[in-house]
Amino acid sequence: MNLIFARRRARILAMKAVREKSAVKEKYIVCPGCEQECERRLVIQGMYVCPKCGYHFPFGAYNRLKAVLDQGSLRELDEKLTAADPLRFPGYWEKLESAQKKTGLTEAAVTAVGTIGGCRCVVGVMDSRFMMGSMSAAVGEKIARAIEYAANKKLPLILFCASGGARMQEGILSLMQMAKTSAALARFSEKGLLYISVLTDPTTGGVTASFASLGDIILAEPGALIGFAGPRVIQQTIGETLPEGFQRAEFLEEHGFVDAVVPRTKMKETLLRLLLLHEK
Question: What's the pTM value of the predicted model, to 2 decimals?
Fold first, then answer.
């Protein structure tokens, strides 16, 4: 009998040790930038930026909107617009439902109208957690509608881009969004309105080749991967070693593709300054 109680006690203690170890792990997060453990609480408080090296973790769409828009000013646009399955691609619905449950989003883009420091504007945010921010017909439609809303209301437009490219499950219908969003921006530009594009990690593929690169002002977050094809594909194609930091935000700023690299914690004040300059 004593042996049974001893074994049961040993199991209970072992289970308790596992739970305590798991709780300790949940309190800390390993930074991919410096590979050091950081308190999760401090990372979250710092807008998901590593307090040790400044690495920018993925930032959810609603978190980003709350970070840049004035409290209480956010009004979401086209909240219920979601992807269809025009090609009846095998397993697509399951992937969509999984992404929706994981992120709490209906699609890889969220658009809203609100204020930054009292300045009204339209803001769109792509979320890389939702199928790598891939551009579906619904994402393109959301972006195009946000552009048209800003044009009709004569408001400045800010788009935070993050994407792995066109959504393969929708084929040519996804690729068509490049032309649709670019055409909407051309009409927007004809009205003399301000468009600020903010490139976050990663911004690649068809998004880079369309609306992400068409900003009057192009900003980027530190360390963001920006390009059409990935560096490995380019290196294999040209058969040459690429420069250090190739396709990263800082490299692109140095070569004139990006106007400024702005840390996430300074993004709101930077956007406000640009909006106020535009108003004058």
Answer: 0.88
